[in-house]
Amino acid sequence: MSQKADIALIGLAVMGQNLILNMDSKGFVVCAFNRTVEKVQNFLNNEAKGTKIIGATSLEDMVSKLKSPRRVMLLVKAGSAVDDFIKQLTPLLSKGDIIIDGGNSEYTDTQRRCKDLASNGFLFIGAGVSGGEDGARYGPSLMPGGHEEGWPHIKPIFQGICAKSGNEPCCDWVGQDGAGHFVKMVHNGIEYGDMQLICEAYHIMKTGLGMSHDEMADVFEDWNKGELDSFLIEITKDILRFKDNDGSPLLEKIRDSAGQKGTGKWTAIAALEYGTPVTLIGEAVFARCLSSLKDERVIASKKLGGATSSKFSGDKKEFLVKIRKALYASKIVSYAQGFMLLREAAKSFNWKLNYGGIALMWRGGCIIRSVFLGNIKDAYTRNPNLSNLLLDDFFCKAVKESQQSWREVVSQAVLLGVPVPTMSSALSFYDGYRSETLPANLLQAQRDYFGAHTYELLGKEGKFVHTNWTGHGGDVSASTYNN
Ligand code: NBP
């Protein structure tokens, strides 16, 4: 009989095919399978021709071709397709075999699957995979979590095929149950934030400064040489330079209505769930929602007035430096918020997350890859228990140096009528976070006034009291909602 496969991969769409080719090129024998079985032979005859990749005609055939313990990776549409395959696979597998879900599954589904499969003796791993088609083929960022006993069995494959930052793999064990998919979800949320920040910088340059596409491309090219050096800044430069067949910028012909697949929304929902102010990602999701109201916006644009002037009249060159600094400071806040959310979830689920390790996993291979993530890794290496990125000396200094520019850019954008929801919400968060005193004293008083929700007095924390504010209300306080 021919050589047995190291791993099976189910799902021959863009991610699955490329990950299989990647595994093959790193010396692993992969058995390919797909719901629509004809796609297996098609893949073997074309993309996989001349490789060691083998195919299966059924799940039974696939399982029989695997080394033990069997490793089966799913790269199918998230949701019921994953459950359907798990249901079909478990009668064919043995205790100790490993099922890996590499799709964009919701972390709560992964938690449920971990629990169900553990009760039957299987090992389940929910692994975030990032990097799109190219990443899958040449080195993705991989974020595995779930049953840790399964990790040694897949580690050589995962760390063999993933992206590298220097010599270090952009893949390591994340944590129990849904931790891998939670980290991937936050990664995607941060990606939403990074993209929206870049869009706001572009909007100010185009509308406020009246720059041409080539001029803007030059600016992004320049920014890509400094602290903003990243995949997203680089592709933005390429997009701005791209000309349609008629020689005009293709970008201007693209309908300004953004799509979304849900992972940004999940991050915002998780932020609300864990009471973490992940404001920038939330605004980035809403910015996409607002953009999709194109028809309404067209009507409103004819009716609703705006700023007195939409053209910037100061020194453009100086202002461009300020936009760069505003983008950088906002980005620091976004990542600080993302890591705050990771910390809260880790507390809730008792995950022992390695925050520096997560920054390293995102350092290469994925869409948010950047030099900046190396700075985050360094911050957590200096202090693994860092409570907030903003408190690290490097980032504290970086924000201090950018702060005035950031304020000027947000103010200018407001005066020019250019929307900057993520830059401005990041600045508000920063101002709130650094405030010893916020107006929540008034809020507490209002709550107590109308709902007898009680409040704490400064210096007497932990003791909740109620005031009869009107003289005609009672002295009885509500027993819930104190916090
Ligand atoms: P898709 O998300 O388009 O899924 C296609 C695969 O899912 C095919 O193998 C298809 O089988 C299978 N499938 C579907 Br659709 N419905 C099914 C069902 N009800 N039962 C069983 N199989 C079903 O592929 P992809 O873009 O390669 O993504 C794969 C996973 O990786 C997804 O979870 C995605 O969110 C995630 N991801 C994608 C990217 C990216 O850039 N595309 C990046 C990172 C992660 P068929 O051939 O029989 O229809």
SSE order, as H and E?
EHEHEHEHEHEHEHEEHHHHHHHHHHHHEE
Rg computed from alpha carbons, rounded to a whole number of angstroms: 26 Å
Mean pLDDT, rounded to whole units?
Answer: 96
Structural class: alpha/beta
Proportion of residues in helical segments: 40-55%
Count of beta strands: 11
Shape verdict: globular
Low-confidence stretches: none
Polypeptide structure, described:
It is a single chain. The chain is α/β, with parallel strands linked by helices. The chain has 19 helices and 11 strands. The protein has helices at residues 14-25, 38-45, 59-64, 80-89, 107-118, 132-138, 151-161, 179-208, 213-223, 231-241, 263-273, 279-291, 294-303, 316-349, 355-363, 372-382, 393-416, 421-433, 440-451, and strands spanning 7-10, 30-33, 54-55, 71-74, 98-101, 123-130, 141-146, 164-165, 168-169, 455-456, 464-465. It has a 7-stranded mixed sheet with strand order 3-2-1-4-5-6-7, sandwiched between helices. It has a two-stranded antiparallel ribbon with strand order 8-9. Helix 4 (80-89) links the parallel strand 4 (71-74) and strand 5. It is globular, with a radius of gyration of 26 Å. The mean pLDDT is 96. Bound molecules: nicotinamide 8-bromo-adenine dinucleotide phosphate. Residues 11-16, 34-36, 39, 75-78, 81, 84, 103-104, 129-130, 132 line the site of nicotinamide 8-bromo-adenine dinucleotide phosphate (NBP).
Key terms for this structure?
single chain, 483 residues, alpha/beta, seven-stranded mixed beta sheet, two-stranded antiparallel ribbon, 11 strands, 53% helix, globular, binds nicotinamide 8-bromo-adenine dinucleotide phosphate
